[in-house]
User: Fold this.
Amino acid sequence: MEVTKNREGEDQLEDSTQRAPGRAILEAVLSLWFVGLMGYFYYTRGYLDLLQQIWRSFFG
Amino acid sequence: MVEIVYIIAIATVATGFGLTLLRKVGPICDSRAEELVFSLGFGLGAIALVVLALGFAHLLYVEVFYGLLAVGALVGSKELIGLAGRLQGQFTGRQFDWRSFYFWLIVLTGFGLLLNLLRALLPAHGAVDPLAYHLALPKLYLLKHHISFERTLTGALYPDNVGMLYLLAIGLRDASLAQVVHWFMGVTTVGAIWCFCRMYFNNKVGVWAAAIYAFTPVFVFFSPLSYVDVGVGLFQFLGIWAFFKWLREGEQRALMLAAVFMGFAMGAKHTGIFIAIAAGIAIAARGLYCKEEIRSIGLELALYTAIALGLALPWYARAWWEAGNPVWPVANALFNGLAYKGAYSVSSGAIVGGTVGFVERAQDLLHASATSLWQWAWNEKLGWQKATGIYYVALLPGIVAYWRRPRVRWLALACLLYYLLAVLYVDGNPRYNLALFALFSVLAGFVVEQLSRQSTRFLRLLVKAAFVVTVVGNLAQGYALSFQGVQYALSQQTADGFLLENEANFQAFRFVDKHLPPEAKVLLQGIVKGYYCERVYLWDHPYQMLLQYGDYKTSEQLLSRLGELGITHIARMIYIPPGRTKGVGYPQYFADPLHEDFRKKHLKLLHRDNGYVVFEVVYPS
Assistant:
């Protein structure tokens, strides 16, 4: 795993492929939460309809 | 579109002026970008204070403003040329990787900011606060050529550094330029967030964080309007950033810079006081934690307080001088200031819960603290000023996965304290606490960057794709909000034509501006949006105490009071909506016996349109 330092000298993980299994699972759960919650938010707020309206206003 | 030329000129002068001042503080910046952002913030704050000084000196003239820009350009030219050279050196030979995900995220963010700009370029209309006082007060100062005390207007004695920049903008051009100034302060904040992340984490986190903040709904909605909150947020964020630098490096110069920006923030809105005090407490806490000598802690505190307070002092001293209360009309009972009817209190939210018991109050506070972020994201009834979007609730829980990293932990703890302060004491209103969301966006940017680099390729792609989809949704919302601006930019419509269609009182005020003598003094009845009135005016808002209709039993007594106040004309809303008669307390003038009697005896109709009338007050000769 490649480790680089940011401007402050703190270690930054640059490699995305090797992480502890616990961390990997946690990140997978967080990703699903993030995607699911955002999907629900934008869908229920009518963004899809808004995009359709804008699309129609340009392309009929 | 000429406003864009003006804002480039103002920004250039501010950067040069700010850089010159930054040099006086000493070498402090770790990068060119940081130097640019700090200079810009410093310059904008300094220009605001110079305009304030001109106002105190009765020198508010358009020619003086051009002179100010010329002198500013002259003072800062040497430093500016140096900075331009260094920035050019930075960019020369650098190629942008158009295949990079981050490149396209920057492009989409820039597109969102440009949509906001189209709204900023519209003639100022609609929103109440800007036309009632954020823009109206600077316009009145300009009419009178000095900083006057407009006792009947809300916010007459509020600290108003951002308003001073609006004053400059209105003098140079018009209210659209003032809106562009506010928009530009938002763009600077977005740039500052990216810069901060480069220093604190890395460049990629900066791109995520900048995008998250730039698409936060409350920011999108308010940055092109002439409220002051985005400007306050900029000063606060720069202050917090400099303060972090001081915490890390212990350099006195960083502390001085933090104090400068905290001073600018306190001089821009009362809410700036809370974070400035919190920083003062943190100075003492750090000193005690590091076992510094008490004398050393005292010196640091004294330096910080002297600079921050010194820069904000003109505003608070002015309020004290005029009304006997440095924060008038807030906490008026405490200072026994000039009478004001409103129930303004900084602690009227969750902190002071009336007569409920301790347990209930503690429960309320706990509930508000635990649920506010979630409520702001989901509860549409709270309106735009509390619309924070979904990014924060979706991403901030991810902090737990990276808690072992000291930087994440410290920033998260700082954000938590700021959040509690905002919820419990600063009105629980995201619009008043945009610096908090700038800090949140840094943390959220860090989390999403980590998720986009996790071990499962599918999830990495999913996270990036989902984020891009939300950005497209945000752009759609931005386009919907800016649609009027797009149409206006593409049309041949004049500003007057636009305002006649979109600002109800514009026709009446245009009559006032064209036909009333320059020395006329107008009483606005039922109207607070006085920006387009180019004569001196007073409000009859029930909270002000200069003219209380209930004090006069006959129309002759009322006429006598209007005479004392020097009122020559009245601009009146014909029909007052029920919310403003029952809620605020305005009389329904044409149905009110006293006002009808007064109209018949002492008013001469000069103008009438669909919603407004203009009268001349006829005094007995």
Q: What stands out?
A: The radius of gyration of chain A is 20 Å. Residues 13-17 of chain A have pLDDT under 50 and may be disordered.
